[in-house]
Amino acid sequence: MDRDLKTRLKTLNLKVTPKRLAILEVLAAEPGYLGPEEVWQKMKKRFKSIGLPTVYRNLEDLANGGVLIKIIHPDRKLYYYFCGNTGHHHHFICVSCKKVEDLSFCGADEIEKEVRDSLKGHVVSHLLQVYGLCEDCSLSKTISS
Ligand SMILES: [Zn+2]
Ligand SMILES: [Zn+2]
Ligand SMILES: [Zn+2]
Are 97 and 32 in contact, with CB atoms under 8 Å apart? Predict the structure, then answer.
């Protein structure tokens, strides 16, 4: 795991530092997303004197470098997620249990076509995150209501 994470940082031209690796390890061990403060709590077990700003900065660097996915949550807070799948895909984000699942549907072809046909432009990149309730959370909602 550690080797894979190192390789991933290197292929993205990101400097490999012990703190960056530890952040990736923390997030790779999670089935879902974490907020900066949760990552910080877990990091303090290994780096006793690490400050929250350092965690924030490293999370931002890793997200900007493309190794972490930044989740703009409907609760307006920022979260981060690590996905081992390096192919182009999108995510289904459970707003209740914080689980993230890969989606194979993209839809970019149709959007690119519309941009080309109606706007006479072309798409450079796109962002798509889908929010909802996962199967488990949908079921517990039905039972409790
Ligand atoms: Zn859920
Ligand atoms: Zn993914
Ligand atoms: Zn796509």
Answer: yes
Chain mean pLDDT for the chain: 92
Distance from Cα 7 to the centre of ligand 3, integer Å: 24
User: Is pLDDT above 80 for 82?
Assistant: yes
Q: What are the residue boundaries of the structural domains of the chain, listed by start? A: 1-85, 87-145
CA of 54 to the centre of ligand 3 (A): 31
Q: Ligand 3 is a single-atom ion; what residues have CB below 5 A from it?
A: 106, 108
Q: Which fold has domain 1-85?
A: Arc Repressor Mutant, subunit A (1.10.10)
Q: Specify the pTM.
A: 0.86
79-103 in b/e form (b: 16+ CB < 10 A) is bbbbbeeeeeebbbbbeeebbbeee
Average pLDDT (104-119) is 94
Å from CA of 128 to ligand 3 middle: 7
Whole-number Å distance, alpha carbon 52 to ligand 3 midpoint, is 33
Q: For the domain 87-145, what is the CATH superfamily, name and number?
A: Ferric-uptake regulator, C-terminal dimerisarion domain (3.30.1490.190)
Ligand nearest to the CA of 131: 1
Residues 55, 56, 61, CA angle at the centre, nearest 5°? 95
